[in-house]
Design brief:
- Two copies of one chain form a homodimer.
- Chain A is an alpha/beta fold and 389 residues long.
- Helices cover 43% and strands 13% of the residues of chain A.
- The first copy, chain A, is built from 15 helices and twelve strands.
- Chain A has a six-stranded parallel beta sheet, sandwiched between helices.
- In chain A, helix 4 packs across helix 6.
- The longest helix of chain A is centred in the C-terminal third of the chain and has 17 residues.
- The first copy, chain A, is elongated.
- At the A-B interface, helix 3, helix 7, helix 8, strand 2 and helix 9 of A face helix 3, helix 7, helix 8, strand 2 and helix 9 of B.
- Strand 2 of chain A pairs antiparallel with strand 2 of chain B.
- The structure holds a DNA duplex (16 and 16 nucleotides).
- Chains A, B: InterPro entries: HTH_LacI, LacI/GalR-like_sensor, Lambda_DNA-bd_dom_sf, Peripla_BP_I.
- Chains A, B: One of its GO terms (molecular function) is DNA-binding transcription factor activity.
DNA sequence: CTGTTAGCGCTTTCAC
DNA sequence: GTGAAAGCGCTAACAG
């Protein structure tokens, strides 16, 4: 019965004495049953056994199974997989053969547990997976992390502060190695302890509140200021700024850049041109149409994000040429419709987040590092028109 | 020294005898050191100790730590966290208090290992994180999975077959509970074994090759056919189809739908109107300009995906009204520029993938299930123009 | 309702 | 260069 012709997985079953109380005891008993039948030839498997076989699949081969088949100790097999060089070429080959035959895959769960209980995943908590900004950041992160053998786990808060706590909690329970976070809750002090416990936190797009964490942000203020300066240089003075919602950190910064640049050009009071929170239920399109209906309408509009830019296109049509406009954030087809924007490399931003995570893992101590990713003006026609005479 | 006033984490240190050979022995020794200093008051921590404390952070509290503080056994604490009701309210409160004080978080890694070595994550292997289609699918999946307490791990193949193997391998090593996959390799038979080992596979957007797996696809063929039928009903006969690359499953299907609908309208030979692989180095815009340069140019164009639609806008401008056109895939601002499309609910598709995963986890046996998500024509102007007389 | 014991699959320490 | 024993944090089985 314990003949050498039994399949490797069946051999593992013979080790039953060594693992008498596995939680999946039923599985194992069943496995032995079906394997025994199988050793009589496939035709001997009854219907019940076949159904059971499908319902309770065979176990994966473990390191011990490989060791047994290769005739070495578990530790030696382990050495082959943790990059140790202290294995003779001959032994190594035997082990690799055995592993191949058993389709062995090291269990990262077990390895992580043994290795200080920390997984190889980095959590990224973002607002919304349908927002192209967050997702391109995630793409950059993933590329950079995978080069270091780390994976990325994504969680969405749907811009709900309570969800931030829930998702972060799940990730911490999974023992992510680090946490990247687009903060939405009012307060991230609850993460201070985790940082102290060795889980670095890097915030993305917005700074953390009440938490000493690294951050990777855009240069929101300078980006908008540059756009407005280009317009004032062309002679524009009646420049509007459209953004919603106004309270978000990035939007506050962009508004500040707008005001700053207009003040430089001698325009002190911009309040008449600011549309910061859209009329409830009507949205940004209404704000923009309202601006154009003014007695003295603006000669240029700066939008605070890509949603506002889309609203502008919807409100005024794709190629309105009696008005100058520049949008924060690049977007698909902006080139095709000649929409000038304040752009930045979103994927690179994600890579930078990953690099901060890696650097922080290498050096958990030290003051928080804050990175501002640069923006640049992309002229495409809509932002280079002087005001009408 | 073992006074009750020592912090809980320091108490854990007193259990040193119980875990004498932890792999992080250095950490623990260090922890004891700093804790002892700390018990003399924070001011007594020397510079070296403080640096060391930061470099080698204290350990997380474990279930055993909580049990010790609450004066119960580990198993009882465990019962509180696995949803057992067999704990007296009083004990439960004591445990919860202790857990709170120690900031205890159950270690999902350990739990997963004990639970048959399967994690709570579902892997989704997609082509490219910057592609909005895949990402919206991921968004839908994530929403549905999180309702069942599962998380999602994302991996990108960058459309490289070798990467598919690598990413899938990583996920399997992490013992994902199931695998969703946009296949890119020629052959997925390597996953047959994993399925047999209890890891369900659901393919997305394209069927698997040589693997019995569930799939969630779009109704590509009918989607294109519907668009073409609407055009033939308006009188169009010279209808072009632009798509690249031609070999992809979805594109093959969409082409078939195009041909089918034109055949229904009496047009047998469509080869002159098909632009299936763009001129190398020049892209889809060149294909489209080439079509319009023909002696008898098409009166309508159907694009095979959103990239081709974008190329059409770039080649012909955003509001070309002497030509009818319809695109497969909806895209941002398509409404603003009056671009009619064959649309579908991408997020819902993702939810459906998640539901297939969950169903398959419940019932690993049974024949593969194939789902086709419906598409629908969204009229926005560009597709409802009759041909010029 | 609660505790004891053993072990998931792996890696660590230490001995050979 | 290799092996034996122990245990990471948690939970299943089985007592009491």
């Amino acid at each position: 019965m314990t003949s050498p012709h039994l399949s490797p997985l069946c051999r593992a079953v013979d080790g039953h004495v060594q693992r008498p109380r596995a939680p999946t005891g039923a599985h194992r008993a069943l496995k032995r049953f079906t394997c025994q039948l199988a050793s009589r030839g496939p035709g001997a498997i009854g219907v019940a056994a076949r159904v059971a076989l499908v319902h309770k699949p065979p176990q994966r081969a473990t390191l011990a199974d490989v060791a047994r088949l290769a005739g070495v100790s578990a530790k030696t097999v382990s050495r082959v997989y943790d990059g140790s060089t202290n294995v003779s070429p001959d032994t190594r080959r035997r082990i690799e053969d055995a592993a191949e035959r058993l389709h062995f895959r090291p269990n990262l769960l077990a390895r992580s547990l043994r290795h200080g209980g920390v997984s190889t995943a980095v959590g990224f908590v973002l607002g919304d997976l349908t927002n192209p900004f967050y997702v391109k950041v995630a793409a950059g992160m993933e590329r950079e992390l995978s080069r270091s053998g780390l994976t990325m786990v994504l969680g969405a808060t749907e811009d709900d502060p309570a969800e931030e706590h829930r998702v972060v909690g799940t990730f911490l329970a999974q023992r992510v190695r680090a946490l990247a976070l687009v903060p939405i809750a009012d307060d991230q002090s609850y993460l201070e302890r985790e940082r102290g416990l060795g889980t670095p936190v890097v915030t993305v797009d917005r700074p953390a509140r009440n938490l000493l964490a690294d951050s990777v942000l855009l240069d929101d203020r300078e980006g908008t200021a540059e756009a407005v300066r280009a317009l004032t240089r062309l002679g524009h003075r009646r420049i509007a700024f459209v953004c919603d919602p106004a309270h978000l950190y990035t939007h506050v910064e962009r508004l500040a850049g707008y005001r700053e640049a207009l003040r430089e050009a001698g325009v002190e009071d911009t309040s008449a041109w600011e549309r910061l929170d859209d009329p409830p239920g009507q949205g940004t399109e209404a704000s923009i149409l309202g601006l154009m209906d003014m007695a003295e309408p603006p000669t240029a509009i700066v939008t605070g994000n890509n949603k506002a830019s889309a609203a502008l296109v919807r409100a005024l049509g794709p190629m309105r040429d009696d008005l100058a406009y520049v949008g924060f954030d690049d977007f698909d087809l902006a080139d095709a419709i000649g929409f000038s924007v304040v752009a930045y490399d979103t994927v690179e931003l994600g890579r930078m987040v990953a690099r901060r995570v890696l650097a922080r893992l290498d050096d958990p101590a030290g003051a928080p590092v804050h990175v501002r990713m640069p923006t640049h003006l992309v002229p495409r026609g809509s932002g280079e028109r002087p005001p009408p005479k």
